[in-house]
């Protein structure tokens, strides 16, 4: 077995080990076996554990995940275009479920454990500066506001902390959630963190335009942090204005909720309000700045702690290493309490596979167990991304949640035509470091930086760091293989079949979402005439020549043979496949259509998209246009390729 990745490897040498590919597609080592006959490194595919026990648990979520269930279920009610339009016209914001405790904003149960437990900045000004020996700075929202409007809201997020849905009707709601009026009980602050950006250490970054209002504890004792993004300057704003525009805010609001409905761990979004003031932005960094409407999103998560929250303090030398420990203790106490309660009887000891037969005992070091869980949650999240064709675009370490949540929606994108080298970020175009195919390896690279931080603080040793990275590889491969098996409706994982499929899709630029959705219409009948095999897929196999047609017929024949051997009925398999292959994803051109209307004061398309994306696996008769391939205009600059100017 190759030696385990060392936490002490330099970023450059580790990246070269992970991505030894000279082709411009940069397929990751984990997925390389899906695009070529070579196998990934053995230590990333095969557990070397004497006993495999997963210590991970799902991040808090308000609902189940359709995308991971293979059990057939009763069809959910569908929503027609006319009914959605009528609903929007007649929409009222209440009443909500009588079983949920209903609270007014003034009655929310605030608890400021982060501020209480961790060292803060003695200063409260917003002058850009290095904030030393502190995890946060107390600041107040300062964005200029004039007649703010509520653009959109999420009922399900309000339910997370028992908020009465009628509170959205309050005339002062836009003022409260733009930061113009203070929320009773809130204690606003901006978090200090650092990070690696595009593989290079960037030093202090921090919340440059996000201001946390505090934590709300609900009736189930769950902790939810509320944060206003675009609320004004903080000491971490550097040369920026601390504001956000409506364009990027719509994208973040919609994608947060769309990802949740796809069953992918993510931060959530409670509300989106306009500020009534314009913000100057140079969208393409080409010197052509323009005025855009300002907006603020209220983001919600159990915590917004990131890898970079720990990195910044470890980078500042001996004096701040105790802050790394304090932050780890805080996270374990409030967000991983099961780790603190582990005991020796659980027997979480594992062989590292080294020549000396050494053992990692997770019960003897809670920080090691915590690191392993973070690694596994991260791997699971990224496997989920690959399943729906999601590309984050900016996988810097300051954008990696310790809870394994998708966080910081900037230049994200869902695959249209299948292209492993796709990146939605114009800044990333030269090297495509964060392209779709590279995401699994970048996740591991980021875990390596995180474990190096904890090792520097002497919370874990080298073997524990290496073991966490090994568990990342095992978890990713397990989840990726299981996910692809479900997407194809196969009885078991078939590496050769899936590898050939992805190769075919890449060659013919087949639409990722629509292909897998249509695949469930293929019948498990080996007697189907050859000239009819591709009929269920004709809508996605466009403009292919005879040679490519033969390649696809050959693949479908093999696929049908596998299905026929499974013994599952066509109807049952279709229901199972449709429950994991969404019909609707938040394509960039759909966002742009909603943005264009919203910038003219029409918010109906934002709300319509939100409602549609809440049930992405349903058919929604009358809404088929939202599943179509992007129109020609969608490929203009600024729609499907986006910079970070937001």
UniProtKB/TrEMBL annotation:
It comes from Salix udensis. Keywords: ATP-binding, Magnesium, Metal-binding, Nucleotide-binding, Nucleotidyltransferase, Transferase. Transmembrane segments: none annotated. This is Selenoprotein O. Residues 47-80 are annotated as: Disordered. Residues 54-80 have a biased composition (Low complexity). Its cofactor is Mg(2+). It comes from the Eukaryota. The keyword Magnesium applies. InterPro entries: SelO. GO terms for cellular component: chloroplast thylakoid.
């Amino acid at each position: 077995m190759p030696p385990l990745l060392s936490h002490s490897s330099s970023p450059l040498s580790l990246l070269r080990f992970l991505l030894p590919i000279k082709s411009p597609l940069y397929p990751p080592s984990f997925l390389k076996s899906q695009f070529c006959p070579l196998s990934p490194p053995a230590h990333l595919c095969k557990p070397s554990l004497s006993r495999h026990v997963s210590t991970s648990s799902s991040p808090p979520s308000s609902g189940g995940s359709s995308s991971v269930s293979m059990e057939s279920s009763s069809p959910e009610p569908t929503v027609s275009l006319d009914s959605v339009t009528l609903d929007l016209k007649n929409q009222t914001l209440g009443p909500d479920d009588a079983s949920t405790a209903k609270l007014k904003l003034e009655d929310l149960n605030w608890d400021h454990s982060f501020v209480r437990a961790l060292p803060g900045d003695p200063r409260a000004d917003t002058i850009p500066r290095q904030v030393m020996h502190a995890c946060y700075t107390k600041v107040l929202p300062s964005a200029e506001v004039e007649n703010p409007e509520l653009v959109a809201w999420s009922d399900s997020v309000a339910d997370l902390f028992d908020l009465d849905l009628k509170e959205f009707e309050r005339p002062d709601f836009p003022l409260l959630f733009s930061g113009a009026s203070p929320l009773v009980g809130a204690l606003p602050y901006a978090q200090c963190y650092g990070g690696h950006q595009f593989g290079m250490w960037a030093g202090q970054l921090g919340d440059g335009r996000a201001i946390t209002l505090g934590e709300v504890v609900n009736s189930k004792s769950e902790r939810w942090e509320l944060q206003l993004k675009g609320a004004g300057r903080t000491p971490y704003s550097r040369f920026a204005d601390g504001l956000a525009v409506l364009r990027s805010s719509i994208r973040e609001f919609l994608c947060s909720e769309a990802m949740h409905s796809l069953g992918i761990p993510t931060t959530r979004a409670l509300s989106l309000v306009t500020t009534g003031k314009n913000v100057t932005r140079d969208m393409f960094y080409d010197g052509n700045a323009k005025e855009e409407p300002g907006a603020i999103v209220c983001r919600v998560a159990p915590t917004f702690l990131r890898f970079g929250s720990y990195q910044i303090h470890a980078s500042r030398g001996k004096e701040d290493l105790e802050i790394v420990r304090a932050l780890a203790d805080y996270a374990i106490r409030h967000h991983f309490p099961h780790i603190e309660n582990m005991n020796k009887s659980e027997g979480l000891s594992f062989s590292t596979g080294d020549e000396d037969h050494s053992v990692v005992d997770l019960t003897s070091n809670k920080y090691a167990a915590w690191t392993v869980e973070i690694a596994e949650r991260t791997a699971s999240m990224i496997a989920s991304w690959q399943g729906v064709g999601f590309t984050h675009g900016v996988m810097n370490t300051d954008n990696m949640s310790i809870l394994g949540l998708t966080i910081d929606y900037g230049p994200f994108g869902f695959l249209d035509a299948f292209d492993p080298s796709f990146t939605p970020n114009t800044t990333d175009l030269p090297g495509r470091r964060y392209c779709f195919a590279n995401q699994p390896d970048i996740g591991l690279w980021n875990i390596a930086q995180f474990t190096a931080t904890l090792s520097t603080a002497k919370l874990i040793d080298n073997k524990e760091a290496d073991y966490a990275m090994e568990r990342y590889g095992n978890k990713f491969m397990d989840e990726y293989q299981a996910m692809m098996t479900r997407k194809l409706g196969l009885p078991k994982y078939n590496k050769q079949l899936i590898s050939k499929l992805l190769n075919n899709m890449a060659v013919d630029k087949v639409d990722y979402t629509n292909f897998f959705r249509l695949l469930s219409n293929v019948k498990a009948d080996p007697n189907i005439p050859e000239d009819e095999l591709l009929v269920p897929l004709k809508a996605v196999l466009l403009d292919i020549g005879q040679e490519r047609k033969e390649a696809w017929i050959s693949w479908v024949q093999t696929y049908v043979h596998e299905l026929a051997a499974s013994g599952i009925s066509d109807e049952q398999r279709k229901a199972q496949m449709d429950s994991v292959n969404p019909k609707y994803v938040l394509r960039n051109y759909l966002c742009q259509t909603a943005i264009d209307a919203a910038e003219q004061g029409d918010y109906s398309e934002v709300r319509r998209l939100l409602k549609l994306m809440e049930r992405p696996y349903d058919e929604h008769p009358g809404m088929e246009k939202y599943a179509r391939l992007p129109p020609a205009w969608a490929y203009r600059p600024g729609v499907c390729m986006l910079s970070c100017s937001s």
